[in-house]
Structure formats: structure tokens, C-alpha cells
Amino acid sequence: SQQGEEDPQALSIQEGENATMNCSYKTSINNLQWYRQNSGRGLVHLILIRSNEREKHSGRLRVTLDTSKKSSSLLITASRAADTASYFCATEGNTPLVFGKGTRLSVIA
Amino acid sequence: DTAVSQTPKYLVTQMGNDKSIKCEQNLGHDTMYWYKQDSKKFLKIMFSYNNKELIINETVPNRFSPKSPDKAHLNLHINSLELGDSAVYFCASSPQPDQPQHFGDGTRLSIL
Q1: Which of A65, A76, B32, B112 satisfies CB 3.0 to 4.6 Å to A19 for a cystine?
Q2: Is the per-residue pLDDT at B23 higher than 70?
Q3: Chain A residues with CB inside 8 Å of B58's CB?
Q4: What span, in angstroms and rounded, lies between the C-alpha atoms of B73 and B6?
């Protein structure tokens, strides 16, 4: 299985700090995506990084991909209370999109 | 304007019953999906349709049957509901199969 696994499972930080979440996967991929899920809501797509890309930015988000280590990281800078949510990585390759179990981020005001 | 809408939002029913969940997207996407999220937040794909054709059918009991009357709709019918079917079911859509997906807010199914 190429299921992504996020690390840590839970993260609690103060507002204004940076949050880093990691994702590891097992097989080759075409792209890796990050999604956010607020409590009781559906997933929202944040960013997609292709296998031939190493880094992408979107606002306060920075995603890196290291295909040699089969890992990705999501950095949220200057976190806000509204960033409190679960964050999932998902890998797309020869199989349909496969989601990890998520990192639960709590940003304390 | 809700992009991907699911009904109902909550579904409480007894074991053995048959129920349906409806999904509609107004994004003009060609591809739609059904996912199951368990109590540990693990999200697993069940089905995917592209232009009304079934393209993904993961290992799901035959009691689950998707139906896509047109590109904008993908409904999920479940026969003979079991306790283990309790979960949140998400519908999603994307322009094409390998592109970012837009999710509905889920249907929380509880089996008594």
C-alpha cells in the first residue's frame, strides 16, 4: 500500500508559531496532495505537488517533497486559531488517491 | 452556493434497513467519488465514476451500490445495513481523476 502516514498524530502550538507536519509513503507516486478537515466538515484541498517538484508555496503554506526518502512536509507559518483542524496527506499513483490518518493541529490563541 | 452537496447530513437507522445517500455537484466536474471515514478518521475510497462510468470499485461489500444518473449526481444505496457500516460517508468530485478533489460535508450514518 502507498498509504501516507502523517507525523505527528497531534500537534498543539501557540498562535503565531509555525507548524510542521510530515508525511511518509511507501511506493512511487505521480503527485502528493495536502487537505484540511475542520471538525464536522468535508476535506478542503490545500496544495498539490507533483513528483518532479521539490517545493511549492501557497500563501502561508509551504510544501516540500523528497521522492528519494518518500516523504513530504507541510509548513504553516504564523499560525492562527482558524488553522485548527486535521491535516491529511494523500498520494496519487497507480492506485486511486490514498489518504493518511491525519495530523490533528490545535492552535491556541 | 454549495459546490458538492450531500443529503441527508445525518442518518440514524436500524440494522437490516436499506438507505440511500444522495450527492450532487454543481462544478461541472467529470469525476465523482464516495469515501468512508471511520471513527479513527481514516478515509478510504469506495467508488469513483468518470462521465457516469464506474472506474474505481474498491473492496466494498455488494450491499453498497453506487448509481450515477448523470455527471452531476452520484448516489449511494446501502442494503441490509450492519453495525460496521456506521461511519461518515463523503462524496467528492474533481475535473478529472488525477486532479484535486472537492468534498461535500459528509453524511453521518449511525446504525442502531
Answers
A1: A76
A2: yes
A3: 96
A4: 10
